[in-house]
Write a structure and sequence with these properties.
With about 250 residues, the protein is mainly α. The protein has helices at about 5, 20-40, 60-95, 100-110, 115-130, 135-150, 155-165, 165-180, 180-210, 215-230, 235-254.
């Protein structure tokens, strides 16, 4: 633990307590419920996309209703370590109840706010898919190459570092998060912003593959979780970038 963290009263790293394990289980259960709702709400054709050669043709109200649920399903597991850190800080400072809930809500607010632009991108992919398999393949290839290239950008590395090591965020904004639920909401939104900066390109790939394709959702969620939580997450991110670029080049050649 850093000296700054010690001065700010950030608890030292330790094994998770029973209460923290229960919190993690609750977050994962919430994510599981979101997966179930997404699967039940998916309409025929909504799992398609330009990478699968068919239009998605989803209605905007349904999409905007389901999009936050999808984001909860994919992002909550990866945010669990940060949430546990805030819970420890709240317990150490005897903060008011509701801090963790407000923090999680702030995290999801950021991803929910991307629903409208995500829908616009999805409808753009719909129009491209209607133009035929060859055009869809070329555009899908470009999406993959761009997403892969983003994995190597300074912005991606900057956001990923803050997603992987949220202690700096707690050191800087821990007092704000504990002062009120509104403060916790703002800190959750800040952490969600880092996550968005880290994962937006992969989310565009999801839209190209089919917004409600549960298989692609599961693959993306697993990759995001590994990138953020695995011991060599940065290397996983680089490997993912190479794989996306390679697949894109293959599609262009094909």
């Amino acid at each position: 633990m850093t000296r700054a963290a010690a001065r700010r009263g950030i608890p030292a790293p330790r094994a998770w307590s029973r209460a923290e394990l229960a919190l993690a289980a609750a977050l994962l259960a919430l994510a599981g419920a979101a997966w179930l709702i997404t699967g039940l709400a998916a309409m025929p054709g909504m799992g398609a996309g330009i990478l699968t050669g068919a239009p998605a043709m989803s209605a905007m109200p349904l999409f905007l209703l389901i999009w936050p649920v999808m984001m909860a399903a994919m992002m909550l597991p990866a945010s669990t370590p940060f949430t546990i850190g805030v819970r420890r800080l709240a317990a150490a400072r005897h903060a008011r109840r509701g801090t963790v809930a407000a923090l999680t809500a702030g995290y999801l607010v950021v991803w929910s706010a991307t629903g409208v632009p995500a829908y616009a991108v999805l409808r753009g992919f719909d129009a491209i898919a209607m133009r035929g398999e060859a055009v869809s393949a070329r555009v899908g290839a470009v999406v993959l190459i761009c997403a892969g290239a983003y994995q190597f950008t300074p912005l991606k590395r900057w956001c990923l570092a803050r997603c992987r090591s949220p202690l700096a965020l707690l050191v800087r904004h821990g007092d704000t998060a504990l002062r009120s639920r509104a403060g916790a909401l703002r800190v959750g939104m800040r952490h969600g912003g880092y996550c968005l900066g880290c994962c937006w390109a992969l989310t565009v790939v999801l839209l190209a593959a089919g917004a409600m394709n549960l298989v692609w959702m599961a693959v993306l969620a697993a990759l995001i979780g590994l990138e953020k939580a695995a011991p060599r997450g940065e290397a996983i991110g680089f490997a993912l970038g190479v794989a996306a670029i390679g697949l894109g080049v293959f599609l262009l050649a094909w």
